[in-house]
């Protein structure tokens, strides 16, 4: 199985901060990498697909980069509505696997 | 706009079979080059892929659940289904259906449904 390691597992940040979350796969997955935001009681929301493609309707302050084993999700200027859990997920091979999540909290 | 909606019992007894259906609207399952998947999330925990089906009926399951899982597709009703046998309390989760699979296409998820395993 491909392990997806997210870091950090949690972070505290202020509104307006630039935030970076990383995801490392245990082997190369090309660009078969999706990023999700999840708020309590809600389904995961797609932010980025195929490593760097912004899903329709997602604010441009979100961006994704990377390929192979190493990926990054960046929030350029953190907004109050961005405090949530974030997950990465690989679609390269079976079983599909998710990172353990990063909780973004208010400082 | 593609929409997915899960349905099924919210309470299942231990040792019984959990059965859920995902109705797809705004797009056709038949003939599409997409995978249709089930994912679950225990309360307060992370996400676990259960299995996927393709429009031709091909299936692929998480090895950790493979002995108990069946995912099937009904193109005539534009829906796909999950059966999980011999459930225990550890299977209590929010179950999501999604257009998600071994591609670089943008995923689409349903809103999820909570299934509790309890007597």
What keyword list fits this structure?
heterodimer, A: 107 residues, mainly beta, seven-stranded mixed beta sheet, 11 strands, B: 119 residues
Task: Please tell me about this protein's structure.
- The complex is a heterodimer of chains A (107) and B (119).
- By secondary structure, chain A is mainly β.
- Helices cover 0% and strands 50% of the residues of chain A.
- Chain A has strands spanning 4-7, 10-13, 19-25, 33-38, 45-49, 53-54, 62-67, 70-75, 85-90, 97-98, 102-106.
- In chain A, a hairpin with a 6-residue loop joins strand 4 and strand 5.
- Chain A is globular and about 35 Å long.
- The termini of chain A are far apart.
- The mean pLDDT of chain A is 97.
- With 119 residues, chain B is mainly beta.
- In chain B, strands 2, 4, 5, 6, 9, 10 and 11 form a 7-stranded mixed β-sheet that branches. Chain B has a 4-stranded antiparallel β-sheet with strand order 1-3-8-7, with no helix packed on it.
Termini separation of chain A comes to: 36 Å
Low-confidence stretches of chain A: none
Q: How much helicity do the residues of chain A have?
A: under 10%
Query: Which range does the strand content of chain A fall in?
Result: over 45%
Structural class of chain B: mainly beta
Count of β-strands of chain A: 11
The chain pair forming the largest interface, with residue counts per chain, is:
A-B, 26 and 25 residues
Number of helices of chain B: 0
SSE order of chain A in H/E notation? Answer: EEEEEEEEEEE
- Helix/strand class of chain A: mainly beta
Number of strands of chain B: 11
Mean pLDDT of chain B: 96
Order of helices and strands of chain B: EEEEEEEEEEE
In one word, what is the shape of chain A? globular
Q: Which percent bin holds the helix content of chain B? A: under 10%
Spans of chain B with pLDDT under 50 lasting ≥5 residues? none
Overall, the morphology of chain B is globular
Q: What is the percentage of strand-forming residues of chain B?
A: over 45%
Q: What is the subunit organization of this protein?
A: heterodimer
Largest sheet of chain B: 7 strands, mixed
